[in-house]
Amino acid sequence: MEPNMTPRERFIAALERRPLTGRVPHFELVFFLTMEAFGKVHPSHRSYHQWDQMEEKERELHRQDMADLYVATAERFEHSAILLHPNPYREEETFRLIDLVREKSGDRYCLLLHGDATFAVPGGAYMTEFSYRLVDEPEKVKAEASAMVDKVLGLGERLRNHGGLDGFALCSDYCFNTGPFLSPSLFADFITPYLARLTKGYRDMGFYVIKHTDGNIMPVLDQLLQTKPHALHSLDPQGGVDIAEVKRRCDDQVCLIGNVNCGLLDTGTDEEVVESARYALRHGMPGGGYIFSTSNCIYTGMRLARYELMLDLWRKEGNS
Prior knowledge:
Blueprint (H helix, E strand, L loop, with lengths): L6 H9 L18 H5 L17 H22 L3 E4 L6 H15 L4 E5 L12 H10 L1 H25 L4 E4 L4 E2 L2 E2 L3 H7 L1 H13 L3 E5 L8 H6 L4 E4 L8 H8 L4 E6 L1 H6 L2 H15 L5 E5 L9 H14 L3
Parallel strand pairs: 1-2, 2-3, 3-6, 6-7, 7-8, 8-9
Antiparallel strand pairs: 4-5
């Protein structure tokens, strides 16, 4: 392992596809099992409805507890980055949370926020309406897509000026297990140009950009690469995405983050979990540009022991 490199520095080196020796960086988009691990509800699961009724003393206790929990999670499970979930999701509270985590952890971890502004697979109640709109009023839909990008890039500028943040995870999901919600041609019209502008805007501000989407991305993989994120997450094996094939196709273009099978973590055998983790390491690690993680996140209902089993394998075999 390179001497004196912090987890943040190793995470950034992987995003920049620089070779690393020692253990490959590890990160989870979200770790929701904070009740089992620490006896505390995850920050994003806490009610914010009474925030305006709280005394400032109560608010400050809430802020401090959230920041402590994020740092404790990163320390216990050896994460190299922390994706913050401000609660309540207000700009001034986002700034405060960044400052508190930096105060408690220094520059040890890469700090990220959600930052997507592209159309995701719509919820079932809106799916038909959205599909009609793509045909009936395409220019209006594109204007909305452009306005969404403008809005979040404005926030990005304010976050850059504030300082302390390293980058964004773009978490609009585009795909089902069987393939993208939009055909590749529609994807090229309604997603790719706006994702490219969003990513370039963030990169021009000096931020790192991780593009997340579940499902089978292979029909639109080339378009995702054209938008030039630093990394792709989650390379979903339940959607038929083979990390070995993705590594072969785009190793020189993007860092890969994934792809231990979340379904197996839930319902598979211990042996299947170990083999999935081993496969991800074996095919992701060579040549650098790889960060070890699950194919989604450590979500509510998963057994903590299964995550710890995955980490045991990483500690034994995730070293170059």
